[in-house]
Amino acid sequence: MHFSVLFFASVASMTTFALDNGLMRTPPMGWLAWERYRCDIDCKNDPKNCISEYLFIDMADRLFEDGWKELGYVYVNIDDCWASMERDKNGRLQPDPNRFPGGIHRLARYLHDRGLKLGIYGDMGTHTCGGYPGTTLDKIEIDAQTFADWEVDMFKFDGCYSNALEQELGYPQMSKALNATGRPIAYSCSWPAYQGGLPPKVNYTQLGQICNLWRNYGDIQDSWSSVLSIADWFFNNQDILAPAAGPGRWNDPDMLVIGDFGLSMDQSRSQMALWAIMAAPLFMSNDLRTISSGARSILQNKMIISINQDPLGIQGRRILKEKNGIEVFWRPLLNNASALVFFSRRTDMPYRYQTSLKKLNFTTGSYKFTDVYTGQTDVLKDSTEFVVSVNPTGVVMWYVSAPGKLQYHPYFKGNKLHRPAYVAEENAFPRVFL
Fold it and tell me: Catalytic residue among 123, 153, 158, 382, which?
């Protein structure tokens, strides 16, 4: 097996705004309100769960006190429906005074005092998706400066109520405006999700120069079918998406819904494993005040987090799709290591999948593996046949390590990491680390 790497020129003209903010060298981690709490503004009847400063203070306290922050979950991100319906007399956005009586700046200070970071939401259009004031082209600079004045650490820029031309102008302009404030603000742009997620409409080279992360696809829902459809889209298009990702620039398949209502424990393990393989941002959208011990153990799994946060920042790939419903995913990691995921699409019973590392195109040698969920360790020769029992809609995930040198990888030339703007691959089994 081999990689055939083809380079293609970008099909779109590029406007260059170097992001150059030094942020998010590994995928960001934290908590985001939207999937679990949506646009609940009924604080009279639902005070614990409405979009208010109290909700974000509660979640910040949980991150700070319950061991999340130490694992890397440091962002607390406000999504839609936080703003007043009117800008202030100076044309600035302002929070709803009843739900955010202390203001956004005081909330940011509360988080910063606990070693956490605050994210906020806006929209490249006349209105946000929830109907609140948007950021039109003439408001970009003032809104960027407002967020900087509030000491916000991350900004998500949605795209409702705007057209393709406005987006083409506005997303790069906001990147430039955020940089101009002098405050490091990580920038999440939803531009590709509004243009179908793929070239030629989406220019991933340009995105990597103006955004730290970007939403490529539709919103996640609290269901296994939603998680699976998102994973399928990302891996079906991995030849385009994987080369675009790297330190400071990430594909974002959307939130982790582990700990909510729609996933079983096996499906929760699957989402965590697949998001780690994808080098995806890990933004939980759940209730950290009531989360179960099972969901917590998945989200706080140190080995999976270390895989997700690997400094090389290479997005992993699906390398096998078997007729029996088993799929195999692989991601190269620092120090000649890699991660393997065996995933079952089956819905009947545990499936005993037999293979060898040699069949998975590992080079000759002995390898140590650790099952990241059970902690089991063992040593395998590349030629040794083994069996993994994979539960329906579940995964077995291994961290694989062995001494030696990097044999071959298409993104490496000499000792330097190289990612083309677009890569097409034939017979795309990975040559992994020896």
Answer: 158
303 close to 399: Cβ distance less than 8 angstroms: yes
| Active-site residue flag, 310 | no
Interacting residues of 184 by C-beta distance below 8 A, sequence separation 6+: 21, 22, 23, 153
Per DSSP, which regions of 102-199 are E strands?
117-123, 154-158, 186-189
**Could you tell me the sign of the dihedral formed by the alpha carbons of 240, 241, 243, 248, in that order?**
positive
Strand partners, 375: none
Six-digit token pair at 310? 């690997």
CA 73 – CA 238 distance, rounded (Å): 26
- 21 Cβ partners below 8 Å, 6+ apart? 178, 179, 184, 185, 186, 187, 212, 248
Q: What is the DSSP letter of 418?
A: -
> What is the residue-level pLDDT of the chain in tens, covering all 434 positions?
332 222 222 323 333 344 779 999 999 999 999 999 999 999 999 999 999 999 999 999 999 999 999 999 999 999 999 999 999 999 999 999 999 999 999 999 999 999 999 999 999 999 999 999 999 999 999 999 999 999 999 999 999 999 999 999 999 999 999 999 999 999 999 999 999 999 999 999 999 999 999 999 999 999 999 999 999 999 999 999 999 999 999 999 999 999 999 999 999 999 999 999 999 999 999 999 999 999 999 999 999 999 999 999 999 999 999 999 999 999 999 999 999 999 999 999 999 999 999 999 999 999 999 999 999 999 999 999 999 999 999 999 999 997 533 344 444 333 344 443 333 332 333 333 32
> Cα 398 to the chain's mean position, in Å?
21
Residue-by-residue DSSP string for 319-344: EEE-TTSEEEEEEEETTTEEEEEEEE
Note if 153 is an active site residue: no
**Phi, psi (rounded to 5 degrees) for 21:** -105, 0
Six token digits for residue 219: 């919103």
Among 219, 222, 266, 371, the active-site one is 219
Question: Which residues 6+ apart lie within 8 Å of 45 measured at CB?
Answer: none
Residue 164 CA: distances (Å) to CA of 6, 159, 168, 273: 29, 9, 6, 34
Q: Which residues contact 265 (CB under 8 A, 6 or more apart)?
A: 294, 295, 298
